[in-house]
Write a structure and sequence with these properties.
The chain has strands spanning about 15-20, 25, 35-40, 45-55, 55-60, 60-65, 70, 80-90, 100-105, 110-115, 125, 130-135, 140-150, 155-160, 165-170, 175-185, 195-200. It has about 210 residues and is mainly β. The strands form four sheets. It has a five-stranded mixed sheet, with no helix packed on it.
């Protein structure tokens, strides 16, 4: 009697769809959530066929066959600076998808900075002073600054610039302090730096802007 049997033929590799974090993204964490959507229309993904490598080292990841999602979360996998990520997938027939490779940058170090009031002067007769700001960040660069006369009451956010004219002190005679925090492009915020000056009010002031 005739004998019949079936063969399953699959010559198409898996497809890697969306993935995150996005290429070129600047992160302020070394333990980001990394995801990749992988599908295979025929034989499906091999049990251990979806892998993620970071800087050439394979990192343990969770594969969900029902959702087609490869995920890493809560693990320190990045280094400060540039990092290269690679996702690769193999289906049950042994077809290998061309790896997806992309790069992200990580910066978890706050910037450094300093502030001078009126160029480091000891006294002023005007409540309006000039702040000289100097901020440095090795990886991301400075985004903006937070300035305050009293850190308890809060800070004012302003774009980072080397000189901030007409900053208004508290119009009270005596020593005045200005506090500044520097924020880098990754969102890291420095500890406050400060400078002092003695305000000697002798007459009313008029400022024309």
């Amino acid at each position: 009697p005739p004998i019949s049997f079936g063969l399953w033929v699959d010559t198409v590799p898996p497809a890697i769809g969306s993935y995150s974090p996005a290429p070129g993204l600047l992160l302020n964490t070394l333990a980001p959530t990394v995801t990749a959507s992988i599908s295979d229309a025929h034989s499906g993904i091999e049990a251990d066929g979806a892998t993620l490598s970071v800087n050439g080292v394979t990192v343990p990841a969770v594969w969900d066959d029902a959702t087609g999602q490869l995920t890493i979360t809560g693990r320190t996998i990045l280094n400060e600076g540039a990092n290269h990520l690679q996702v690769e997938a193999t289906d049950r027939a042994g077809n290998v998808q061309t790896p997806i490779v992309w790069s992200v940058r990580a910066d978890v170090t706050p910037p450094d900075g300093s502030v001078l009031i009126n160029g480091g002067a000891q006294t002023t007769t005007s409540a309006y002073v000039t702040l000289t700001l100097s901020g440095t960040d090795a990886l991301a660069g400075i985004s903006h600054v937070l300035i305050s006369n009293d850190p308890v009451t809060g800070f004012v956010q302003e774009p980072y610039a080397a000189v901030r004219d007409l900053w208004r002190l508290n119009a009270v005679r005596g020593e005045q302090t200005v506090y500044v925090k520097f924020v880098d492009l990754a969102g890291n915020t420095s500890a406050p730096v400060d400078d002092q000056i003695v305000l000697e009010l002798s007459a009313p002031e008029t400022i024309i802007v």
